[in-house]
Amino acid sequence: MELIERWSRGLTKQVVWLSGLVVFERVEEILGQVGQIAISDTSIWRRAQEGGKDLRRVLEAEREEANRVGKQPESIPRQQRAARGRMGSAMDGTMIHIREEGWKELKVGSVFNVETRGILDQETGKVEKQVHAVDNSYVAYLGGPEIFGQKMWAEADRRHWEQASATEVLGDGAHWIWNLAEEHFFDSHKLVDWYHGTEHLGVAADLIKGEETAAGKEWFEDQKEALFRGHALRVARTLEKEAQEHPTVAKDLRREAGYFHNNRQRMNYQDMRDKGWVIGSGMVESGAKQFKARMAGPGMRWSRSGAENLIPIRKAILSDRFDDLWRQAYNLPLN
Question: What's this model's pTM, rounded to 2 decimal places?
């Protein structure tokens, strides 16, 4: 009988969990040094693949149930909804390398609670109120937006999205994100996250004034102030004018102008912040980086099935759901 078939249930769980954190060779090293357990990285990979498939099965069942035609939405009195607070979701993407396919986008999403917390200002000694995304959980999918959107809704539904007093969706401005937002989160506030908006301004400043110039920094700060105050259309018109005056980079400037023009109704930053909403998508960018750290390290090349079986393990760990999903996958009793 192969070693993989003789592992204890507890050891199997730890091997799969470790595989979601570090490369398989490192798992072999950790088990050898810490547990004095000799298991090859090949056996570890095989068990991780099996465990990942089982976690995928649970997550697929959640997706199908949440998106079931005819499913009744949660019903809760308005007073109780207000007491439950606000929620948000954010969507982004990162790249991983798939053998025989090349670099492919791994779509990543986050669902979170929105809370205002007091933060001590070290300089003034005063407590300042700041809005934060807390209790983040994650979704990831190696494929098109339709299934990803269903997975996002399944995670939001699991976390009782419809019981929140109000909700928001953050994205980088990509059309597919807003299409999914309209389909699954149609009554949420929608906002291009602040960092992507200012990133586009930075590109425009370099095109107009040159990279790392004092004039470019001054132009950037002026336009950033206008953007923050909700004047995205004014920024777009400024870029159109600059395109006329800088013919060599006119095409690029008009592209940036289009970005602000097309997203102008989703760029009311000051208003959203004043009303207690998150305006930056750091939570999902952090999630994307954490997926990439495990799946796009130096020299990493995945088979499609290999990546698809590791993604749910990584997702479960980042969402603090590994124990729960493992229990469901193997019909284990609650502790």
Answer: 0.88
